[in-house]
């Protein structure tokens, strides 16, 4: 049998493992699922005869190398910074590698060695990055093949709560790593290009500069800019494009409310707060406010944020129980961001019957035969339950499909790469449709950023 080693059995591995097990008889596959927690790995095998769980400590060199040496192909579902050691072992033992993470500089440095050994190191093959690349390249390639010239590309993606499970004023619950949500947008200004002009949004203004999107059947959304949209210009073959913007989708109003935390300083992860373990939620809020001999924490908060007591923004803060003097943070040596994450997790954790939702939206503007045209491409995916979430499905399925295509010799181009070639994206996008990941493409007149210019 052909052995697939899956390192990491976390939430995103559920749909990936289910898919490969469903193909295991026909494709002659045996899955070895390795995780620091043997119990978690065993749970993910579903007692299937073609799956084996092992305890795998990625820092135990002998354990790691033995597992990789015995596999035909390796899937790493570890945190991104841990992939590199796995990748180096894959070079040593001549094994293909698949990950859903961004290509790091260290991973890119292995490109020559991978090519030399005829190995495929497929990265960014999850949701975002992953399905976004594939669905974008499909349309971009189609436009270019019919003689069109790309002038605009915008891409938005968000992990949200499904409408039937949307039960709070923020219209949001954590469907992925909460820490990533709290730290979103930090680490440098957002960079993009609009109508030929370079634009930059510093973190302090990021959540007040949003774009609006309409998705039929699901209503209105907003998008705030991702950190560096420009790095995909050459990847997508869009070096001469006038507009390139990538953003994160939220429900309308989320960004304005989130900006309150940014302005207060609660998303800062650069310093530790004294005696955080014994701090109450109320004391946490008060630590960012000026001293006043008579004003309450509530009044000081409203004054500094310039909101009234009948403002929906105030109701959103109250809903989080931020001013409770009896709830303790309970985290030693915690940063503001870590404490905020703890507070939000109280309110924003998906409940047992809740479902999540992925929304992706691309806009393609192009010139053809002297005329400007536009295509909008939209995808909405709803999760099945708490195990097979929309996030697990959209991250895990492309990883699994790419793995099988590599094993079966359908993907052959060696090297460290993204899923931007036809040999990768065509079969995967087609098969994803069977699992409810369907893009609806719509042609329309080109609007750009001045929809009235044709009539002025």
From TrEMBL:
Gene3D superfamilies: Dihydrodipicolinate Reductase, domain 2 (3.30.360.10), Domain 3, Saccharopine reductase (1.10.1870.10), NAD(P)-binding Rossmann-like Domain (3.40.50.720). The keyword Zinc does not apply. Residues 4-121 form the Saccharopine dehydrogenase NADP binding domain. One of its GO terms (cellular component) is cytoplasm. PANTHER family: SACCHAROPINE DEHYDROGENASE, SACCHAROPINE DEHYDROGENASE [NAD(+), L-LYSINE-FORMING]. Keywords: Oxidoreductase. Residues 126-437 form the Saccharopine dehydrogenase-like C-terminal domain. GO terms for molecular function: saccharopine dehydrogenase activity. This is Saccharopine dehydrogenase, NADP-dependent. GO terms for biological process: lysine biosynthetic process via aminoadipic acid. The keyword Oxidoreductase applies.
């Amino acid at each position: 049998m052909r052995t697939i080693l899956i390192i990491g059995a976390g939430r995103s591995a559920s749909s990936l493992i289910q898919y490969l097990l469903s193909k295991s008889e026909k494709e002659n596959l045996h899955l070895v699922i390795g995780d620091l927690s043997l119990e978690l790995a065993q749970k993910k095998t579903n007692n299937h005869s073609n799956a084996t769980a092992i305890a795998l400590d990625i820092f135990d060199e002998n354990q790691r190398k033995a597992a990789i040496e015995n596999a035909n192909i390796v899937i790493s579902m570890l945190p991104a910074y841990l992939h590199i050691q796995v990748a180096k072992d894959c070079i040593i033992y001549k094994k293909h590698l698949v990950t859903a993470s961004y290509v790091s500089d260290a991973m890119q440095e292995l490109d020559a060695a991978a090519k030399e050994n005829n190995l495929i190191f497929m990265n960014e093959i999850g949701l975002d990055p992953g399905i976004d690349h594939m669905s974008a390249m499909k349309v971009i390639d189609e436009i270019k093949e019919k003689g069109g010239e790309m002038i605009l590309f915008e891409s938005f993606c968000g992990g949200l709560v499904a409408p039937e499970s949307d039960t709070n004023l923020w219209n949001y619950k954590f469907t992925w790593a909460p820490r990533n949500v709290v730290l979103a947008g930090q680490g440098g200004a957002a960079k993009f290009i609009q109508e030929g002009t370079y634009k930059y949004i510093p973190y302090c203004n990021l959540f007040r500069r949003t774009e609006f999107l309409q998705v039929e059947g699901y209503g209105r959304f907003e998008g705030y800019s991702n950190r560096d949209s420009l790095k995909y210009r050459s990847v997508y073959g869009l070096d001469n494009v006038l507009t390139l913007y990538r953003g994160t989708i939220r429900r309308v109003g989320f960004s304005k409310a989130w900006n309150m935390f940014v302005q207060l300083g609660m998303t800062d992860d650069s310093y530790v707060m004294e005696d955080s373990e014994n701090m109450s939620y109320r004391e946490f809020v008060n630590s960012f406010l000026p001293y006043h001999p008579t004003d309450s924490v509530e009044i000081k908060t409203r004054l500094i944020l310039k909101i009234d007591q009948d403002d929906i923004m105030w109701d959103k803060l109250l809903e989080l129980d931020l001013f409770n003097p009896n709830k303790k943070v309970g985290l030693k040596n915690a940063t503001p961001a870590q404490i905020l994450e703890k507070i939000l997790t109280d309110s924003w954790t998906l409940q047992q019957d809740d479902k999540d939702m992925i929304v992706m939206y691309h806009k393609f503007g192009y010139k053809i035969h002297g005329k400007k045209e536009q295509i909008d491409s939209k995808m909405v995916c709803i999760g099945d339950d708490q195990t097979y979430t929309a996030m697990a499905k959209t991250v895990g399925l492309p990883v699994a499909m790419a793995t099988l295509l590599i094993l079966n010799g359908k993907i052959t181009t060696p090297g460290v790469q993204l899923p931007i070639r036809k040999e990768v994206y065509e079969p995967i996008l087609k098969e994803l449709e069977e699992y409810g990941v369907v893009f609806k493409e719509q042609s329309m007149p080109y609007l750009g950023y001045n929809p009235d210019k044709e009539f002025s």
